[in-house]
Design a protein that fits this description.
Flavoprotein-like_sf, FMN_Rdtase-like_dom, about 45% helix, 6 helices, alpha/beta, NADPH:quinone oxidoreductase, 3 strands, FMN binding, NAD(P)H-dep_reductase, 3-stranded parallel sheet, single chain, globular, Rossmann fold
């Protein structure tokens, strides 16, 4: 629900948005031996191609036991794997990212965002400082999946607007001499 709210806000800026739900791209647990034996799974290749095609990444994720989900970490690991004839970390390095989280707890997924920020920074991404958590998420959305509180919507808009702004500035400056 949170990602749909954010996508709706981003599309008003003219940003090109592709929604990716990791549930649509099942992957085996990352294992170097499995990779050496079978190569990159097809779903990892598809995810990687989506990420390569975009300059920025918006992640909206829940927090499980004070960390990011295993599904998200596994996808990050598979997509990070180098392939012949491509630059190292091509899906991540130099791209922008913004972080959102929703959780039934009182801090709304903040611990997971802290870990996610470290991972993405380590992969060479520019993670914008603006982020937003939605605490008590089980009651934060209405029946149509929209955030109930205008303050929450406004806070998400700040994050999405800033992601679009930084991404545009960063990639426009790369094309200039």
């Amino acid at each position: 629900m949170l990602i749909d709210e954010a996508i709706g806000l981003m599309t008003t800026t003219g940003a090109r948005v592709t929604k990716v739900d990791l549930a649509d791209f099942p992957l085996p647990l990352y294992d170097g031996d499995l990779e050496a034996d079978q190569g990159l799974p097809e779903n990892a290749k598809i995810l990687k191609s989506h990420m390569i095609a975009h300059d920025g990444l918006l992640i909206a994720a829940p927090e499980y036991n004070g960390a990011i989900t295993a599904v998200l970490k596994n996808a990050i690991d598979w997509v990070s794997r180098p392939q012949p004839d491509e630059p190292s970390l091509v899906a991540y390095r130099g791209k922008t990212a913004a972080l959102l989280a929703a959780s039934p707890g009182v801090i709304g997924g903040l611990r997971g965002l802290t870990i996610m920020r470290m991972i993405l920074t380590n992969l060479g991404m520019v993670v914008i400082p603006e982020q937003q958590t939605i605490p008590r998420a089980n009651g934060a959305f209405d029946a149509s999946g929209r955030l109930k509180e205008s303050a929450d919507r406004d806070a998400v808009r700040i994050v999405t607007d800033r992601l679009v702004q930084v991404t545009t500035q960063l990639f426009n400056s790369k094309s200039e001499p």
